[in-house]
Amino acid sequence: MDTIRKALWLARLEMIVSRKHYLNLVLITGIYTFFFQLTMPAYLEENIFVFDVFLIIYLMTITFSTKPKGFQYQKMNDELYASPYAVMLNQLPIRRNVLVLSRFILPYFAIFASIPTALTATYIFSPELQDAIGPLQLISLIVIWVCFSFSLGGIFPASEPGDEIKRFTFVWSFASIIIFFVSLYLIFQVWLDTGFFKWTIYLANEYTILSIIVSILTASVVTWYWYHHALKQIQKIDYLQ
Length: 241
Prior knowledge:
By secondary structure, the protein is an all-alpha fold. Helices cover about 80% and strands about 5% of the residues. It is built from eleven helices and three strands; from the N terminus they run H-H-H-E-E-H-H-H-H-H-E-H-H-H. A hairpin with a 4-residue loop joins strand 1 and strand 2. Helix 2 crosses helix 5. The relative contact order is 0.15. It comes from Rossellomorea aquimaris. This is ABC-2 type transporter domain-containing protein.
């Protein structure tokens, strides 16, 4: 509990500094909600892949949309990329587990605030989505996407302590993004003949409770992995090189 309390205190300091940037979160949530509501009828009927692509981009944008420049992951020297704020905290007498835990709190808070708002607003203004899923099942759908965002977006706070990135790493990262979206298209559009978001609607409708349980367990395991990855990085990297 002491670790959590201290991590929350660090996160609170960051939130005070970043409070103006939370307008970005409101703006992004509003823009994507409008986009989802506008394209939902065509998506549910024709499985438009662009909808899924923009949904993933939205999820990834949330986690760093509230961070000022000095808090963002950026180039520190020739090969080191990190958050200057995280590097500064590492020079202070702060336990590393507290430091690392504090990096996850605000990104996850942003996810928890934005996704339920966007999906609920889309549901209210989209009769087509109301026909596709009931109010109780909508809760399951929201949990699925919040947990998926925790799993996917956890890479950003996990990277803040630092990464030594070489040219091959850039190439591999770019290739991984392409592979991810190609796989998403082949699995859902070609093989299952549906959309990714539409498939999660099916899961929420048919396996409401099971989807919630599996999503929470998966997000917990993946977040645990990202947390320990960040701990390993902060112990390994020489910030004074």
